[in-house]
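2024-03-11 09:14:02 INFO queue: dequeued item Homoserine kinase, len=289
2024-03-11 09:14:02 INFO validating residues
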Amino acid sequence: MIRVHVPATSANCCIGFDSLGMALDWWATFQFEPSDELIITGCPKEYANEDNLVVQSFLKTCQHLKKEMPTFHLHIDSDIPFSRGLGSSSTCVVAGILACDAWFQAHLNKMEILEIATDIEGHPDNVAPCIFGKAVCSFMEEGKPRMMIIPCADYKCLAMIPDYPIVTNEARKVLPSTLEYKDAVSQVGHALCFLQALQVGNEMILAKSCVDHLHEPYRKKLIPDYDSIHEQCQEMDLAMWISGSGSTMLAISLDPTKLNQLQKDVETKLSIQCRQMPIASKGAWVDYE
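2024-03-11 09:14:37 INFO prediction written
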């Protein structure tokens, strides 16, 4: 049996639109074992077929390796919610690639894995931290992903997960087509300070640097509870952002008492599900049984 463990992720990280992602210590597990036919368990019935993203990613990797697609029993054990901005699709993509690599003992390196995952996902901002862990900044150059791992101080994360999904394609429709020059300059400055504060543990600067001009001013309208949570986070000097395209919002802090207070308020006043976790120190990995 091949077992693949893949972390949830938070993309964009406020000021890193389509370029900065963070791995979360919240894991999905995917088990693969030989079978005479394709069997998929542990997911909704409508996904238990050959169009399953895990299966399609396995197939894509077989094509990359020039191998025949085997049949297997795939069991998915994940409570990472769909369409909430926590990288559920990226966990499936990375799981399929790593399982195929393990199945054929191909020994793909992590950059090869990232290239296949980016080709499937269309961008590296979620799959990169999924593969490498920690925080990862990335960009595309001539169709190839380029990335750097960002070491993180001992921040803890609070995911605040509303009970409604947001589809990424729909969230992209609300974005502007142009940006004023002064806003672009502001974005760069805030992003550079955010990265440094994330590494050295300067929580005050981290919170102050969470000022985005590219997506949050537009996507927050899709999340009715955003403004009240954002206002409380500002009062508490907490870094907070829309995770991916939403609807999840993520706050991070070095002080667990702050996150505990925010969680209590969000759960009692807004009835929003919350979950605390550290930043994942490593990316996806494989074990065998």
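2024-03-11 09:14:37 INFO annotate: DSSP finds ten helices and eleven strands in the chain.
2024-03-11 09:14:38 INFO item closed
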